[in-house]
Amino acid sequence: MGLIPIDVLKNTNRHNLGDSIDIVLFRIVRFANIERYLGERGANIILYESGKEFGKSLNTKSIDEVVKFCKDYKVGLIEIVNKNPIQIRVYECISCSGLPEIGKKLCYFEAGFIAGCLENILGKKVQVRETHCAGLGNDYCQFEVKIL
Ligand SMILES: [Zn+2]
Question: What domains lie within the chain, and their CATH numbers?
């Protein structure tokens, strides 16, 4: 089974409970302890690559579409803080906002997601690295884009 398309995932058939869930449950799944099975590096790579595959699958044509998707799905509020190199800031990140400083960045899935979206938009391979994160003690996430 490959990536399940978003249009398929939208069919919840939850007439009583609806489509929204508590963010805590999302975070329980998002921060499942896959490090235990794959090691820290392996887990981070899987998250990044999964995010990238998902980002690509959206086929976004512009940054504005990415910003809108992230707002509509409450992923976070995106601000482009610099164009060269591209630096993208995310406020109220779905994954890490409000979490304590642990001396590590947390948003590998989100970094990959940005990479996947940008590869479609720019038509170039990119590498995205998180530079600021709640896990590092910041009150927003920031990602730096390297065009390969
Ligand atoms: Zn973060």
Answer: 6-147 (3.30.1380.20)
